[in-house]
Design goal:
This protein has helices spanning about 45-70, 95-100, 105-120, 155-175, 180-195, 195-219; strands spanning about 1-5, 10-15, 20-25, 30-35, 75-80, 85-90, 95, 125, 135, 145, 150-155. By secondary structure, the chain is α+β, with helices and mostly antiparallel strands. It folds into two domains: about 1-90, 2-Layer Sandwich (Phosphorylase Kinase, domain 1); about 95-219, Transferase(Phosphotransferase), domain 1 (Orthogonal Bundle), CATH 1.10.510.10. Strands 1-2-3-4-6-5 form a six-stranded antiparallel beta sheet, covered by helices on one side. The protein starts with a strand and ends with a helix. The structure holds adenosine-5'-diphosphate (ADP) and magnesium ion.
Length: about 220
């Protein structure tokens, strides 16, 4: 299959998500990934097209914005608003998810992860989906952030806490045996950038969210 006058050539499907399909391929001969948001049959077609277009544009602009904030993201090659497609640099490496599943993972990596999350937050960017599938460690040890489809701007401590709380939940459920150690390293890294006071405030908010969660379950 070829598209865009042959500039992007699809090789294989690498991920099928709820919202998007990702293909590995080549862009002008360079390894590249295409992320395409699929039409949802249950939405009114015009609205569906608009939602996919907006999320595509948002994801692409936040990838660039995050890089300005000092976080490594794939380089954008091409954005097709009408097809809801982003073509970006292919990032070779292992996801943090696999690293943890295989029992790897030096605390230094998680501290760096925390520093990068803090960089985003201090830049007013809430990632919105801090799961271990959205970070890749490259062979030359760069930490790359993926998946800015749920990202938004905010300066609220509560939003920072919600971002980190999601990461804590993912660690607890998918990487239970190492979760507390890993989350501790993430927060230590975060604190190096954000400082003690902000981390203390965010920590208190996280505990508040956890308490609310418990009450919500009792109800
Ligand atoms: N630029 C990229 N380079 C290499 N792999 C990628 C890239 N972007 C996404 N992937 C892979 O595809 C998966 C899904 O991509 P992601 O953007 O997170 O979509 P989803 O919204 O479905 O979670 C990622 O977990 C990662 O394994
Ligand atoms: Mg993802």
């Amino acid at each position: 299959m070829e598209s865009r006058q042959g500039r992007y050539i699809v090789e294989k499907l690498i991920s099928k998500g709820a919202e998007a399909d990702l293909y590995l391929g080549e862009w002008y001969g360079i390894p590249a990934v295409s992320k395409i948001r699929k039409p949802k049959p249950y939405r009114v077609p015009q609205l569906d097209q608009e939602i996919r277009r907006q999320r595509t544009v948002r994801e692409a602009s936040f990838m660039t914005e995050a890089r300005r904030g000092g976080v490594t993201t794939p380089i954008l090659y091409f954005v097709d608003e009408n097809k809801a497609e982003i073509i970006m640099q292919y990032i070779e490496g292992r996801r943090i998810r696999e690293l943890l599943k295989q029992g790897d993972g030096d605390p230094e990596i998680f501290s760096r992860l925390g520093q990068s999350i803090a960089n985003l937050h201090l830049h007013g960017i809430m990632h919105g989906d801090l799961t271990t599938s959205n970070f890749v460690l490259t062979p030359d040890h760069k930490l790359v952030f993926l998946d800015f489809g749920l990202t938004f701007f905010s300066n609220r401590i509560e939003d920072m806490a919600v971002d980190l709380h999601l990461m804590k939940q993912v660690l607890n459920s998918a990487h239970t045996s190492v979760s507390s150690q890993v989350f501790k390293s993430v927060l230590e890294g975060y604190q190096l950038r954000a400082g003690k006071n902000l981390v203390r405030e965010i920590g208190a908010k996280i505990r508040e969210i956890e308490r609310r969660g418990r009450y919500a379950r009792v109800d």
